[in-house]
Amino acid sequence: MFLLRGLLQILEMRIKVVMMIIIITTTIIRNIIGILTHLISYSKYYPYHKLLCFSHTRATSRRFGPDSKPQS
């Protein structure tokens, strides 16, 4: 009984560590993607920057779309 409880505690610690690692890696990846899209939105010569940066595609569609308003 004591062995099972110890194993469960070890498993709980492992799961907590794995969850922390997953959370940290996802936040780091999200930050890297945000920085990349921010940089790519400025480079107009990038071939597939519209796929990566959604806000940039929205801005271009707003600029050249059917209901295009003059930019301020």
Write up what this structure looks like:
Keywords: Membrane, Transmembrane, Transmembrane helix. The chain crosses the membrane at residues 21-42. The chain has three helices and no strands. Residues 67-72 have low confidence and may be disordered. It has 72 residues and is mostly helical. It has one domain (2-61). The longest helix has 41 residues, at 2-42. Helices cover 78% and strands 0% of the residues.
Mean pLDDT: 72
Global Rg = 23 Å
Number of helices: 3
- Largest sheet properties: none
The general outline is rod-shaped
- Helical content stands at over 70%
Cα end-to-end separation: 73 Å
Keywords: Membrane, Transmembrane, Transmembrane helix
Which SSEs are present, and which pair or pack?
Layout (H helix, E strand, L loop, with lengths): L1 H41 L6 H4 L1 H11 L8
Relevant terms:
single chain; mainly alpha; transmembrane helix; membrane; transmembrane
Briefly, what is this?
Keywords: Membrane, Transmembrane, Transmembrane helix. The protein has three helices and no strands.
